[in-house]
Design goal:
The protein has 301 residues and is of the alpha+beta class. The protein has 2 domains: 97 residues, no CATH class; 155 residues, YojJ-like (1, CATH 3.40.1700.10. It is 60% helix and 13% strand. The chain contains 11 helices and 7 strands. The protein has a 7-stranded mixed beta sheet, with helices on both faces. Strand 6 and strand 7 form a beta hairpin. The longest helix has 36 residues. The chain is elongated and about 75 Å long. The N and C termini lie far apart (105 Å).
Length: 301
């Protein structure tokens, strides 16, 4: 017993505040890594790696030289393979770390205008649910969705019930794709989204739900999905899907985004505006250079 007490005395004798902070930080890092891994394909991959590590240790202890050599080689190659296979999860983790509340959002904005936008969206979602009109609406936040917007048709139009109804009207050219909403505007429609590879999705859910879940696995976007078969309203966020929602729940979430969160529309609109400006300047320079070359050719003749 004396030895036991002496052991703990020796361990904690040099324990300081710095050590406590160090342990807390490491604990938080491990917690968020485990949170990121759970319910994704990374969980199965990490289980496989642990099995491989255990096989390496056992083969080393039992002096199974050939098996040990193979396991060590697999671990060396596995380090590179894991980075490739888990690229979406690693990207999601880095984006999560990079999201800051210091960044300017959609701006303070007019509360009445924000409420009008939320009302227009929720009324449309309720109408879609009652009429069983399929819809996939993506709300862009801190992570830019420019690549996915370019797969559809850029509208950059004011949000209205009529426009959303026309986009998702069965038979309309853009009704099968997703709508990307950037702040007060419908930025693009008919967009193609990445499908989720999660094995936990119900077999009853189709491509629309998998696409809605997939974009939240690759960004911090919020997605509202209306089932074409049942009219059920679902919401996807952070790689999780909630189903059987009512309009009040949707309205509360959207108000939280438009009124309380630091929104992204202003920042992203400025970035897009700058990108468009530089693009236009580049295009004008190309036209000017082409015209100058043609003039030189004509002069030489």
């Amino acid at each position: 017993m004396q030895d036991f007490l002496q052991f703990f005395t020796n361990v904690f004798s040099g324990f300081s505040i710095t050590d406590a902070v160090d342990i807390i930080i490491v604990t938080l890092v491990v917690y968020y890594l485990l949170k990121l891994v759970l319910e994704t394909r990374a969980e199965q991959i990490i289980k496989g790696i642990l099995v491989l590590v255990a096989a390496t240790v056992v083969s080393d202890v039992l002096e199974l030289h050939t098996l040990n050599w193979m396991c060590k080689g697999a671990l060396a190659l596995g380090a590179v393979a894991v980075l490739i296979v888990l690229q979406p999860e690693l990207r999601r983790a880095l984006e999560f770390m990079g999201r800051g509340r210091i960044v300017s959002g959609l701006g303070q904005g007019d509360k009445e205008n924000s409420k009008r936008i939320v009302s227009a969206i929720t009324n449309t979602v309720e109408k879609f649910s009652n009429e069983k009109t399929g819809a996939l609406i993506v709300f862009e936040r801190q992570t830019m969705l420019e690549d996915y917007a370019e797969s559809g048709t850029v509208l950059n139009a004011r949000i209205t019930e009529q426009l959303l109804g026309n986009i998702f009207y069965e038979g309309a050219p853009l009704h099968d794709g997703a709508v990307i909403i950037n702040g007060p505007n419908i930025y693009a429609a008919g967009c193609v989204l990445p499908l989720s590879r999660s094995q936990n999705i119900s077999k009853d859910l189709g491509t629309r739900h998998r696409a809605g879940l997939g974009i939240t696995e690759n960004s911090d976007a919020l997605v509202i999905i209306v089932s074409e078969e049942t009219g059920i309203i679902s919401m996807a966020e952070d790689g999780r899907l909630e189903r059987f929602l009512d309009v009040k729940t949707v309205e509360k979430k959207l108000l939280d985004i438009y009124l309380n969160e630091h929104r992204t529309g202003g920042r992203l609109s400025k970035i897009r505006g700058a990108r468009k400006l530089f693009g236009d300047m580049h295009q004008r320079n190309e036209i000017y250079n082409k015209s100058a070359k043609e003039d030189d050719k004509d002069a030489s003749k």
